[in-house]
Design brief:
alpha/beta, two-stranded antiparallel sheet
């Protein structure tokens, strides 16, 4: 499970917006996968301790108090793993069956251009291993560019936090780029559902979820794929 190490996103006007990973997407996904019997390593660029987006744990992010407490409690149970994650540069695709990329705006800042992640994603795709990305997590797929400049996931069907959702409840036009639009420009086939509804798209070994509401369903699809 690769988390962003960024604690801010550089906006279109050059200012820094506090961010990180989205609590529900990590907590709910990790719980589902662990209960399914998966062994999970958490990794970040440089092995830095990841930052949870503060609004993913309160009403500013549309999160009910009871849910926020539940997510916070689960993340607290992962304290040692989050305090000392693996360094992404040391990860080898051959040692894992799947790579899971939760969102929050953080991946737009660091994972989208991370060469170590790009190397891993290219290897996972070539070797038929599972690649899963959730909400803004597909921004991390942007790192997967081959030596000839081609996008590794061009022609693949996927979903992502949509431009519509970004304008309704995200950062809107203050963003440096829209993830959905960027993926489309690179040749991905975006198969999005209605805003704020749970949606998972499976195309071969690529599994993607559209938004935080898709966290559990995305992890369940990954768990099923791992068993298969």
């Amino acid at each position: 499970m690769v988390l962003s190490g960024a604690d801010s996103l550089t906006l279109a006007d050059g200012t820094a917006h506090p961010t990180g990973y989205w609590a529900e997407e990590v907590a709910a996904s990790h719980r589902v996968l662990r209960e399914a019997g998966a062994e999970i390593d958490i990794a970040t660029p440089g092995g830095v301790r990841p930052t949870v987006d503060p609004i993913s744990l309160d009403e500013r992010g549309g999160v009910e108090k009871a849910d926020a407490e539940r997510f916070r409690g689960y993340l607290d149970s992962l304290g040692p793993e989050l305090a000392e994650p693996l360094a992404l540069a040391g990860a080898k695709a051959s040692e894992y069956d799947a790579i899971y990329l939760p969102g929050g705006h953080g991946p737009m800042e660091d994972l989208a251009g991370d060469p170590d992640l790009g190397r891993l994603l290219d290897a996972f795709e070539r070797e038929g291993r599972i690649v899963a990305a959730l909400c803004h997590g597909p921004a991390a797929l942007l790192s997967a560019v081959r030596e000839d400049g081609g996008f590794v996931f061009a022609g693949r069907r996927l979903t992502v936090f949509t431009d519509e959702e970004e304008r309704q409840g995200g950062l809107g036009d203050s963003l440096p780029y829209f993830v959905e639009s960027r993926l489309r420009d690179l040749g991905a086939i975006v198969d999005a559902g209605p805003a704020w509804g749970s949606r998972v798209v499976v195309h071969g070994t690529l599994i993607t979820g559209q938004n935080p509401q898709s966290s559990v369903a995305t992890a369940q699809e990954v768990a099923t794929a791992l068993k298969d």
